[in-house]
Amino acid sequence: MKNLLFSVTSNNTCAGLTKWLNDNHISFDERRISKANPLTSKEIFALLSISQNGFADIVKRNIKNIKFSGEEIPIEELTTNELVSILIKDPSIFKAPILVSQKKMFTGFKVSEIEEFFLKQNKDE
Questions:
Q1: Burial zone of 7 (CB within 10 Å; 0-12 exposed, 13-18 middle, 19+ buried)
Q2: Considering the entire predicted model, what is its pTM?
Q3: Taking the CB of residue 101, how many other CB atoms lie within 10 A of it?
Q4: Is the dihedral of CA 102, 109, 95, 10 positive or negative?
Q5: Any idea what DSSP says for residue 34?
Q6: pLDDT digit string (tens) for 40-93?
Q7: Given 12, 17, 104, 121, which is the most exposed site by the fewest CB atoms within 10 A?
């Protein structure tokens, strides 16, 4: 299975992971997320299906409240469908980068952690 990188523009962490993948000759497809090219509900549910912590793995950790229907609502009070809808409309709350490989997900970019992620992947093959 090919690696899939979910990224956003103008993000140093995404750029760092892209460079690391290229420098280490790891093939991947890149899916850039933006208001013009938002996540789809299918993509969000696919990420949730392989996450260990649900929305906590795909929503920026500093997001505690979200504006919904004109008011600030704590994120934990929103339904799954409401959060999916918000992620589609407002990709700025999406945690990026997210790398998906063999039905496993890696978020962020720390060299030691990404190396370990790929070492585990190779052992599982």
A1: buried
A2: 0.86
A3: 19
A4: negative
A5: -
A6: 999 999 999 999 999 999 998 888 888 877 888 898 899 999 999 999 998 889
A7: 12
The 3-state DSSP class for residue 104 equals strand
CA–CA gap between residue 25 and residue 37 (Å, rounded): 27
Q: How far apart are CA 103 and CA 10, in angstroms?
A: 27
33, two tokens: 């997320």
For residues 124 and 63, the model is more confident at 63
* Contact in structure between 87 and 94 (CB atoms under 8 Å): yes
Map residue 68 onto helix, strand or coil.
strand
